[in-house]
Amino acid sequence: MAQDYYETLGVARTATPEEIKKAYRRLARQLHPDVNDAPDAADRFKEVSIAYEVLSDPEKRQLFDRGGDPMGGARGGGAGFGQGFSFDDIMDAFFGQQATRGPRPRVQRGQDALLRLEVELAEAVFGVTQDLKVDTAVTCETCDGSGAAEGSQPVRCGTCHGQGAIQHVQRSLLGDIRTSRPCPTCHGFGTVIPDPCRECDGEGRVRSRRTLNLTIPAGVDHGTRIQLAGQGEVGPGGGPAGDLYVEIHVKRHPVYLRNGDHLQCQVTLPMTAAALGTSLDLPALKADLAEHDGDDTITVDIEPGTQSGQTVSVRGEGVPRLRGVGTGDLQVTVVVETPSRLDDEQRELLHRLATIRDEQRPEARLGSTHRSVFGRVRDAFRAGAAE
């Protein structure tokens, strides 16, 4: 005898889809082999599953109501379990909802936005506050984010009946394969907007330029990202905005170079100044700021006898530590310049100086830890004579 699917589920022939689903969920919980160890539990569970597969599908149910057999030979205990049966229905039976997520919400969080901002070295080192113009999506003021024109509202989709997806059943050698795809009418939302807002075309948001007051903290470096929470793109349907990230790009400075918490520069001095010592006035980096009202120079003391390549540090004139306490130093590298053109008087003076210092024929030195070349040659000759 052909199986009566209505009788198997214990529902009337006029039962609604919701009543059929409720009956199946109740029986599946009772008969599943994992929770029921009765000898006939597995077979009854298969019958219930096949009955639900037929009655939950409008086409198969209609064929069965006309006296047809929508499952062919896949009925009763001899049928392979799950032919044409969706795993989502098992999940539905045990957890009270389908494994699929159903219609997706129209109101969604907006995406984060990234903006690159070029700043001067002084602005990165000492910090600055400036206005920042941003082009992002904002909530449509006409519809207040709903996407619907005034006096209207979204309605349930007639194609998917609010599910956000439509199911397709395809027969194969393994049985019926059921797939679920987003509804082409409502695009997965489960609702449609019959009269969309003319300002945002149903999106609930529009593009707009706005101005933000951005504070760049002292000590930021090239590549530092500043997070502005909730200042990114407003989401579809007027959803909450994402975050805005401002990535700092520091321009090259004509005098100073940054190295961590230190500022570095190079100065060239004549050999007389390096030998006798001097004081230099360097331009203060802070003077590059428009609101600066302090000293425009930094004094650097060069000690007598300063050698070429030697570094002189000025404490506290570097970069404030972004996530710490204190400030780096200004590091000045000295390059001693040897004059290439001398007049007779200057040449005479240098000869006199060389005579006084006994440097008319100085020995070349390879380094502070090496003897002179001539000294080593002399020692070699002495050793040979001794032998």
Describe this structure in words.
The protein is of the alpha+beta class. It folds into 5 domains: 5-95, DnaJ domain (Helix Hairpins, Orthogonal Bundle); 104-149 and 200-251, Urease metallochaperone UreE, N-terminal domain (HSP40/DNAj peptide-binding domain), CATH 2.60.260; 155-192, no CATH class; 257-337, Sandwich (HSP40/DNAj peptide-binding domain), CATH 2.60.260.20; 344-386, no CATH class. The protein has 9 helices and 15 strands. The protein has helices spanning 5-9, 17-31, 41-55, 58-65, 87-95, 121-126, 271-276, 344-356, 373-386; strands at residues 113-119, 128-139, 155-156, 165-172, 175-182, 191-192, 205-216, 225-228, 244-250, 257-259, 262-270, 278-283, 297-302, 311-314, 330-337. A 4-stranded mixed β-sheet has the order 10-11-15-14. Helix 2 (17-31) runs antiparallel to helix 3. The N and C termini lie far apart (126 Å).
Strand numbers in spatial order across the main sheet = 10-11-15-14
In whole angstroms, the N-to-C terminal distance is: 126 Å
CATH superfamily of the largest domain: Urease metallochaperone UreE, N-terminal domain
Amount of helix: 10-25%
Per CATH, the class of the largest domain reads: Mainly Beta
Number of domains: 5
- The number of helical runs is 9
Q: Beta fraction of the residues?
A: 25-35%
Mean pLDDT, to the nearest integer, reads: 83
Determine the CATH topology of the largest domain.
Answer: HSP40/DNAj peptide-binding domain
* Unreliable segments of 5+ consecutive residues: 73-100
Helix/strand order: HHHHHEHEEEEEEEEEEHEEEEHH
CATH architecture of the largest domain: Sandwich
- Please state the CA-atom Rg, rounded to the nearest Å: 42 Å
How many strands? Answer: 15
